[in-house]
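Recall that a protein's primary structure is simply its ordered list of amino acids. Everything else, from secondary elements to tertiary packing, is in principle encoded there. The following example makes that idea concrete.
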Amino acid sequence: MRHYVVTGGLGFIGSHLSELLLDAGHRVTIIDDRRTSVVDRIQGATIIEDDVVWADWPSDIDGIFHLAGPVGPVGVIEWSGKIVSQVVQAAERTATEARMNDCPLVYVSTSEVYGEQRQPVNEWAPRIISAGATARMEYAVAKLATETMLLNDLFLDVRIIRPFNVAGPRQSERGGFVLPRFVRQAKSGQAMTVYRPGTQRRAFTHVIEIASGIYEAMRRGRTKAVYNLGNPANEMTILDLALRVRNALGSDSDIEIIDPVSLHGNSFAEAPDKIPDIGLAQADLGFYPVMGVDAVIADLIAHEAGR
């Protein structure tokens, strides 16, 4: 049994990861300030309710998974102007704890760091940041700067994860995530709002498979390696996703193409295509996601029905 710390362990991905670690027989301590939590507790885990930077961390840690921070295309907007300092400071504290305990750190970054790069994209692709001072760009730059800082730390065993389009049970619409919004709208008969142009492509991946890949990065990943996690077999447009959700629910909701800036303001920017090349994660981590988009949709619908 190992003792793992999961920052953000009450959040969407973090809660599934924490449960996976507990099921594998490990001891889990969660550090979470509950700003973006989706569950109140995780059975069997110790919870420290505090900001990662100021928390009283436990000792005798065997590994750290750092997931805490602003999330979601809409969720990051409220942190505009503060995202860089928040992301970097939390990572600095987490890295300090990893060095003090001489243990590996798995840092969960974002696919946003690739910016406008052509897809599918591998870990060695140049990052092409779009023009404009949007919250999405601030978030992407903050994550990229933090990756660089951690990779340049000669005394840190770090593995970087860049997840692509995670979805599934417990995902909250609060952060601006598209699938729970579509499910709510289709269930209620409201118009399903597709952010224009609607042809932007995604590769949605079940949260359980992403959590498993993150765990394997701790178990099997190489120090200083960067891994894309996603399911390129699930590539589709946002409009295609809306149609699948509508069909899954037998809904007669209309589908409307809208300008998201009219809803969220000028700090919002819709992402371009995001499709991962996962060859490195397959080779190093044995990461082979198998769950199709329809299974992801069905699991989210079942979760919402059981709430």
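The chain has nine helices and 13 strands. The mean pLDDT is 95.
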